[in-house]
Design goal:
It is built from 13 helices and 13 strands. It is α/β, with parallel strands linked by helices. The two termini are about 35 Å apart. The structure holds pyridoxal-5'-phosphate.
Length: about 425
């Protein structure tokens, strides 16, 4: 798709006016219009439907109906919610379940895959992967007696990983690929199908972390023959802070994989209280223990909004808004020592843009805590010099993108950032 953009606020407003998805912003709790939120890739906004559901869960389900709500509502929610997520990622019912955190799910699936591939000893990932994924793998290798090796593909340009780099690392010993679909820093997006095919040719399995892509990009797990996947529900899915994650296992692999954490929720009859573990059938065996019900209950209403909008439409808008943002960056910021730290081609990107500047941290501080501007802009900062501008198509407007770029320009031109400290906060 080729877009032709113009500068100026009137043009931004006309883009909003003609936007197919503009009504969906009304589904979100927006406390203050002068706060521009560009961090939906880290923590999605609260939907009004989730707010309503949470109040109901607290007052009626917990307050009034107490333990009866387990049978009536809560117990089946991990699978029901998983089936809704399946619709967003091109999976089938019974292949997705909501449970634990992404880190724990990655542990469960990587351990299960390595057990299945026990004659192979190498795991391939890349230098852009989210650190928790690498830490989990390093821990697994230690637990398994240090007989496995973790090999990381490098980047030639600091932004993307070439498929040839990945391919050169595969050997007959490769058991598993563990990769993030979209890189959290640069926004580089893999072609899942191509990478999965490369791995399968050599007999390796692939485990995809979809945390940074689900809810903003089109994903077709079944069509692309993906083996395993995990991901967050609190980013573009808007499930709420700490909402439990999901895991996906392709149907024909379900029988062959065992959960390495044999909790009672994964047992075939948790309430028989048998002394011996007997795994549940299908995806249910990958549950662990009691889920965080309040967080769990907030996810489904948020997913309904995504299903109503359509992931294809959301993805189209994400690409258009990212291209618009890049157009403005090129027009307004590149002469102020900024660099674009994301791929040029929209097909190679997720839904955020990384903007690099040696004063990135202090510029972020000035955006978030303005002294002389009515506008508060919330991006996030990633070491060492990245300002991440996240686009959540369901609620980010073109006008907000325009105003944010103007604000960044003002901060640098007037050297506002110099008033701020570069000592990092605990959470950035
Ligand atoms: C956000 C994110 C995570 C977070 O994992 P948690 O266990 O929920 O803390 C993991 N992987 C990727 C790629 C992420 O973007």
């Amino acid at each position: 798709m080729n877009y032709s953009f113009k500068n100026g606020i009137e043009f931004a407003r006309s883009l909003d006016h003609n936007d197919l998805l503009k009504e969906f912003r009304n589904e979100f709790f927006i406390a203050d219009k002068n706060i521009i939120y560009l961090d939906g890739n880290s923590l999605g906004r609260l939907t009004l439907k989730s707010e309503k559901q949470l109040l109901k869960t607290i007052k009626s389900e917990w307050g009034e109906n107490l333990i009866e709500s387990w049978n009536k509502i809560w117990y089946s929610k991990p699978l029901e919610t998983g089936n809704k997520i399946a619709q967003i990622i091109g999976a089938s019912p019974g292949e997705v379940i909501v449970s634990d955190s992404t880190s724990v799910n990655l542990y469960k699936l990587a351990m299960a895959a390595l057990k299945l591939q026990k004659e192979r000893s190498e795991i391939v990932s890349d230098v852009f992967n989210f650190p928790t994924d690498l830490y989990i793998l390093q821990g697994i290798i230690g637990n398994l007696g240090n007989n496995h090796k973790l090999i990381l593909a490098e980047s030639n340009d600091g932004i993307s990983i070439g498929l040839e780099n990945l391919e050169s690392l595969i050997t007959e010993k490769t058991a598993l690929f563990v990769l993030s679909h979209v890189a959290f820093k640069s926004s580089f997006k893999y072609d899942i199908k191509k990478v999965t095919d490369i791995a399968h040719k050599k007999g390796a399995l692939v485990l995809w972390d979809l945390s940074h892509s689900i809810g903003a990009t089109e994903i077709e797990l079944n069509k692309w023959n993906v083996d395993l996947a995990v991901g967050c529900t609190y980013k573009y899915l808007n499930g709420g802070p700490g909402s439990p994650a999901f895991l996906y296992i392709r149907k024909d692999l379900l029988e062959k994989l065992d959960s390495p954490i044999q909790g009672w929720f994964g047992d075939s009859k948790p309430f028989a209280f048998d002394l011996e573990y007997n795994p549940a059938k299908g995806i249910l065996k990958f549950l662990t223990g009691t889920p965080p019900v309040l967080n769990l209950m907030a996810i489904e209403p948020a997913l309904d909004i995504i299903l109503k909008a359509g992931i294809k439409n959301i993805n189209e808008k994400s690409k258009k808004q990212s291209e618009y943002l890049l157009f403005l960056i090129k027009n307004e910021l590149l002469n102020l020592d900024f660099k674009i730290g994301s791929p040029e081609n929209p097909e190679d990107r997720g839904s955020h843009i990384s903007l690099q500047h040696r004063e990135a941290y202090r510029i972020c501080q000035a955006l978030i805590n303005p002294e002389n501007s009515p506008l508060k802009v919330i991006p996030d900062f990633r070491e060492p010099d990245n300002i991440r501008l996240g686009i959540a198509p369901l609620y980010t407007t073109f006008e907000e993108i325009y105003l944010s770029v103007k604000r960044i320009k003002e901060i640098v031109e007037k050297e506002e950032y110099k008033k701020y400290s570069s000592v990092r906060n605990k959470v950035t």
